[in-house]
Automatic annotation (TrEMBL):
PANTHER family in alphabetical order: 1,2-PHENYLACETYL-COA EPOXIDASE, SUBUNIT C, PHENYLACETIC ACID DEGRADATION PROTEIN PAA
NCBIfam families, A to Z: benzo_boxB (TIGR03225)
Gene: boxB
Alphabetized InterPro entries for the sequence: Aromatic_CoA_ox/epox, Benzoyl_CoA_Oase_BoxB, Ferritin-like_SF, RNR-like
Organism per entry: Sporichthya brevicatena
Name by which UniProt lists this protein: Benzoyl-CoA 2,3-epoxidase subunit BoxB
Tree of life domain: Bacteria
């Protein structure tokens, strides 16, 4: 087990003190990070929050729970333990020892991958800045802040790599990670989904279910990287990311549960007038957040991703569990395509279809949530079913971006789309209704009327535990 030294100004398990130049550079970046947190982090004033803090990188017993003042949270640099026998699992360098330094020929590509991942982390904090003002319970408020501080730590994880391995160019990129802001006209975040608003808690639950799940799969591909420090960084980040997806999965569970309760209590589908979120509105939010998150996987064909794979920079999800040759030189894959107004499948080299390979893993995972939510409805005696829209629905990236496709997978003309888009995606009335429900509940053990309480609290604490002390 590799413990984390909290006596240091920057807690870490990478022996930062042995590299004085790197330590000084990161200590110079730290005040800028804290200024960003003060300006762009949670807007709701608090005394302290019941948070988990990493104290070890082992698989068990790695976190400590306790009340912490948010500005005093100890962000740091944590990598999983090094495996001295680890070899590259894929690509042209398959079987060779993994790299502890960045090969010169891959420097630009690795830096770009790290910057894009790093840019998503502070973006979600910025998107969620105002949500504390309308938290449905102290339990939910605590979960929001846990997600926020860990996204901040994930930013630290990428900044460490940039400072430690990419010289002056890396330091400059680390500065830029604090200069861009979600939704900014002048300096937006790199990826589109991270410039969308997260104005309410239904959106937050959907974001942490769908968009953080994309993060899981992106981190999973980087965990396979031949660049070992990146691999070990992402492996530990995945431990923390699991909580974020739990917040989303159980959050949507609780909204669906409460809607079903209101339907049964009042014997009506019209739950809006009784302070609930109608099922068709939940479906629209699913449609939006799922389709926006699909765009994060990039184009359906990509020579860049093929080159990343061949070079050993970025693997497939669960690479070593695959039963092929892990080089894919002659492999073929089938991807969806539009020919005229028909949706068809076409075969292309598997190397250029790796985005679709990863996206398919993600889609399969997302379908498990839909099954959960449908089971809640079935248990309540409600025969309505949620569904994931077609992969081409509402896409802004890739082969489908120039077409209008319904949730059922029908290609339609622009005028038909324009006439019906309010039936597919949250419209102004839907957003206004959800906004009207966003009334804060800060009393321990109490919860807003539009969402059910959780089945259990955090770390064995009851739901009515005082997770957050407000200022």
């Amino acid at each position: 087990m590799t413990t984390i030294d909290y006596s240091e100004r920057i807690p870490n398990n990478v022996d930062l003190a042995s590299d004085r130049r790197l330590q000084r550079a990161l200590e110079s970046w730290q005040p800028k990070f804290l200024d960003w947190w003060q300006e762009m982090g949670p807007a709701l004033p608090t005394q302290d929050v019941y948070l988990r803090t990493a104290v070890d990188v082992g698989r068990e017993g790695w976190a400590h729970f306790g009340h912490v003042a948010l500005p005093e949270y100890r962000w740091g640099i944590f990598l999983s333990e090094r495996n001295p026998d680890r070899t590259i699992a894929f690509g042209d360098h398959k079987g060779e020892p993994v790299w502890q330094q960045v090969p010169g020929e891959h420097r630009a590509d690795l830096q770009r991958l790290i910057v894009i991942q790093g840019d998503t982390e502070p973006a979600s904090v910025e998107q969620q800045r105002q949500l504390g003002m309308t938290a449905p319970s102290l339990y939910d408020l605590r979960n929001l802040f846990q997600v926020n501080v860990e996204e901040g730590r994930h930013l630290w994880a990428m900044v460490y790599l940039l400072h430690a391995y990419f010289g002056r160019a890396g330091r400059e990129e680390a500065e830029q990670l604090l200069m861009r802001n979600s939704g900014s006209d002048d300096a937006p975040r790199i990826l589109g989904a991270f410039n969308e608003e997260t104005p309410d808690w239904l959106s937050f639950y959907m974001f942490t279910y769908f968009t953080d799940r994309d993060g899981k799969y992106q981190l999973g591909t980087l965990k396979e990287s031949a660049f070992d420090p990146l691999s070990r960084t992402c492996e530990f980040m995945l431990k923390e990311e699991a909580h974020h997806m739990m917040v989303g999965t159980t959050g949507v569970d609780r909204v669906v549960t409460r809607t079903a309760e209101i339907m049964r209590e009042h014997d009506t589908d019209d739950v809006a007038r009784h302070g609930g979120v109608p099922l068709e509105m939940i479906q629209k939010y699913i449609n939006f957040h799922y389709s926006v998150s699909l765009d994060l996987f990039g184009g359906d064909t990509s020579t860049n991703v093929a080159n990343y794979y061949t070079a050993g920079l970025k693997g497939r999800w669960m690479e070593e569990r695959r039963s092929d040759d892990h080089q894919l030189r002659d492999a073929i894959a089938s991807i969806p395509f539009i020919e005229g107004d028909r949706l068809i499948e076409k075969e292309i080299p598997a190397l250029t279809a790796l985005n679709v390979d990863l996206r398919n893993e993600y889609i399969s995972d997302c379908s498990n949530g839909v099954k959960r939510w449908n089971a809640i409805l079935a248990d309540a005696g409600i025969d309505t079913k949620f569904s994931l829209p077609h992969v081409g629905f509402n896409r802004q990236v890739g082969t489908f971006s120039q077409h209008r496709i319904t949730p059922e997978g029908k290609v339609v003309p622009q005028e038909e789309w324009d006439a019906r888009v309010g039936d597919y995606l949250p419209n102004a009335d839907d957003k206004a209704h959800v906004a009207s429900l966003m009334q804060p509940v800060y009393e321990p053990g109490k919860i807003a009327s539009w969402v059910a309480p959780p089945r259990s609290g955090i770390n064995g604490q009851p739901f009515d535990y005082e997770y957050v002390h407000l200022a």
